[in-house]
């Protein structure tokens, strides 16, 4: 019985957090409700064409459960923070994942349990990439707790657009 109350309390807290974040986003943009990155969040405009090379290495290490070198972590966090527009950081990570899939010979879309490379499933790679803003303590105004939670959800092919 107590565990049911705990689960309910946690779910209620999550719903309240989502509602508060949505309200904050709407207020932040002076009457404009903006939920997605703008048209300037594209490769070569809002972030480099080959974004976050050190984050690619970090995501691969995290995906297989390996230790992350401190220099790689610092370099990745510096590259992510260098994406000037916080609204573009998740788009840059999305584009980075698309590039990684191509480099590794994986399909653009696939089942979360499918291996991208030995010991690394697609879902694990996407969660590692999605959590980088929180890991690096950089702001993303459109994520909850610093996590680009929508990276694992299909919306458009991973082209960075």
TrEMBL record:
SMART domains: AAI (SM00499)
GO molecular function, one term: IgE binding
Pfam assignment, any one: Tryp_alpha_amyl
Signal peptide: 1-20
Coiled-coil portions: none
Annotated ranges, domain Bifunctional inhibitor/plant lipid transfer protein/seed storage helical: 41-148
Record's keyword terms, sorted: Disulfide bond, Secreted, Signal
Cellular compartment(s): Secreted
GO cellular component: extracellular region
Physiological role: Seed storage protein.
UniProt name for this protein: Bifunctional inhibitor/plant lipid transfer protein/seed storage helical domain-containing protein
